[in-house]
Amino acid sequence: MKVKTIIVGTGFGGLATAIKLKLAGEQDFLLIERASGVGGVWRDNHYPGCACDVQSHLYSFSFALKPDWSREFASQPEIHAYLNNCVDRFGIRNRIVFNAEVTRMDWREDTGEWLVTTTQGNYRARFVAGAFGSLSDPDIPALRGLESFRGEVFHSATWNPAFRHAGKRAAVIGTGASAIQIVPAIQPEVSSLVLFQRTAPWVLPRHDEPIPAQRQNLYRRSKLAMKWNRLKIYTKRELFVFGFRNPALMRRTQKTALAHLHGAISSPELRAKLTPDYALGCKRILISNTYYPALAKKNVEVVNAGVRQVTETGVVDATGTLREVDFIVFGTGFKTKEPPFASYIFDAKGEALSSAWAGSPKAYLGTTIVGFPNLFLLHGPNTGLGHTSVIYMLEAQAEHIVKVIQFADRAGKRIIEPKRAAQAAFVDFLDSAMKGTVWTAGGCESWYLDKTGRNSSLWPSFTFTFAKRARHVSEDAYALRDARVPE
């Protein structure tokens, strides 16, 4: 099958791109989805307690505001329902091919198109927008003996909804954003819980509460009031950038986090285990009002000795102590340092994107890549955020993608690719902007840093500065050419 544009993935990034294309008058596109429904991470992550850590009114599309969010921080079911609503509201469900996993993509320079191989058949497309998601492929450590464990094992993103954890002995490995939601959600119901912590996270209070019906009604009546509320949230969160770029400014926020810890944990020994030894912001900042109180309960043990191996009946820590458990939950994050999609995307010479990146992903505006024409990445290198809603970035990228396609069409050229000098200048700007930030000078090792030590994950400035750059498409940044074989 031949189509002008293929979008891979139906999370926030893929849906933003599809809707922006349709609103711009582009009709010849398909979305390819490996699962049976839309939603990306908000479809896959349905573990107990799953919710967003950005306020609902900001963690949504600017072109599809929702007046009736039930809480300040929405839960997974509500966000998933919102995405399904957007699909139907903008009439794109009939453009989605479900249960079609992309297994290979090959660029054909002669015809100026991508050959996209999927489990539901093959496609030819002039453009491909890859909304693969940076948090879509679970990363489970290769622990010795894991395959021998007799109980239930799953990653936070593959939680078994049929599993009943009540009354059972739990082991949670990892203390990231998912783990701090899972632990307080299951702690009251399990007989015991052992939390294996490699590095203590910084945790701030979560100012969450139900949104009153009268305020929801106000937003229904006045879109201006809803936009004003969104702008206030946006502005407040953007102020965190000053702290990320100047770690000394984080000290006041660190004091808030420490007070939050001390207010919930009275045991000096447990406090010591839960006190981070790096600057706040170096790793992802977490928010929760229930995490610390859960860890203080009698049926919870925090182990910060690391994991040596797994046996048939439990988990052995680095000191050799065995804790017998009935199920193991991995809150160990995702494959961000080596994104799986990069291994099956090939340029005209047959070189994989993973080989071209050589352990350090680079792209112009985090979206287009030298050597891989007519290819766009949503949530690509350096488009992640540590302070606010990534939806803002995804919308800016989707807008850029539409403009690049239209730019090529107006020029009457089939192929468009960022110039090497433009991509190099953009990467130089990023590396320069990262110097002295909390991510590179905060004293921690995080998933933000790639194999070479570069922060190739985050945008190092205000989000509006990225959006401003993304609005412009010109011959200074992009090279245009014809296919070798006329269409």
Description:
- The chain is an alpha/beta fold and 487 residues long.
- Helix content is 31%, strand content 18%.
- It has helices at residues 12-23, 41-44, 76-89, 179-186, 213-221, 223-238, 240-245, 251-264, 268-274, 291-295, 353-357, 390-411, 420-434, 438-441, 463-470; strands at residues 2-8, 29-32, 96-97, 102-108, 113-118, 121-130, 152-155, 169-173, 192-196, 203-204, 286-287, 300-303, 307-310, 314-317, 322-324, 327-330, 345-346, 375-377, 415-418, 478-481.
- Strands 1, 2, 3, 4, 5, 6, 17 and 18 form an 8-stranded mixed sheet that branches.
- β1 (2-8), α1 (12-23) and β2 form a beta-alpha-beta unit.
- α1 packs across α12 (390-411).
- The mean pLDDT is 95.
